[in-house]
Amino acid sequence: MPRELLILRHAKSDWDSAAGSDFERPLAKRGKKDAPRVGEWLYREGVIPELVLSSPAQRARDTALKVCKCLDVSKKDIIWAGDIYEAELRTLLAVLARVPADAQVVLLVGHNPGLEELLRHLAGSDVDEPEDGKLLPTATLARLEMPDDWTQLASGSASLIGLVRPRQLK
Questions:
Q1: Dist CA 142 CA 102 (whole Å)
Q2: Taking phi first (over 0 means left), then psi (-120 to 50 degrees means alpha), and beta for anything else, what does residue 46 get?
Q3: pTM of the entire structure?
């Protein structure tokens, strides 16, 4: 069975909240609805991550928790990786290089623009740019078939299985 990477941008955040910082910004009402939709879709598809890596920023944390609840993945099994927050491509590739080789399905929850850069790098020409320029709007999930070795992930080394946007899951 080929290895899979699930790249999930956090769900819609609440810009009008009283959060003291960007890191503390919570999910908006729409985000609270969209995150479980993604989790339910993964469950129906039988795609259950063996490893979940998430930014610890509040909006990513809440997204990961809501998705994992739908998948019966315990919150104690989520790895809160601080280097995912505001990460650039190089950092995200380093995060993936540390993933154990026996993890077949990995869920990575984080932020743009880093996740879009990662998706474009991994999928290469498999990515069709949307007209609106938003490859990974909030709560969008990219599913990639990955090579066995994640320590040297060259451009175009993965195959895009599909992109799922929450509005498609209503």
A1: 21
A2: left
A3: 0.96
Low-confidence ranges of the chain (pLDDT < 50): none
Q: Please give the Cα distance from 80 to 143 (Å, whole number).
A: 21
Rounded CA gap, 133 and 117, in Å?
Answer: 13
Q: Three-state SS across 149-160?
A: CCCCCCCCCCEE
DSSP-derived letter for residue 77 is G
**In angstroms, how far is CA 98 from the centroid of its own chain?**
16
Say which amino acid occupies 112.
N
Q: Which two tokens stand for residue 93?
A: 């590739």
Among residues 33, 32, 16, 25, the alpha carbon closest in space to that of 55 is found at: 25
Pairing assessment for the beta strands 141-146 and 78-80 based on DSSP bridges? unpaired
In this structure, the number of other CB atoms found within 10 A of the CB of residue 125 comes to: 9
Which runs of E-coded beta strand occur in 81-130? 105-110
- Alpha-carbon distance values, 96 to 3, 16, 160, 166, 170 (Å): 12, 33, 17, 25, 31
Q: In the prediction, which pLDDT does 125 show?
A: 85
Q: Cα–Cα distance between 83 and 105 in angstroms, integer?
A: 20
Q: Which of these, 131, 127, 129, lies nearest to 160 by C-alpha position?
A: 127
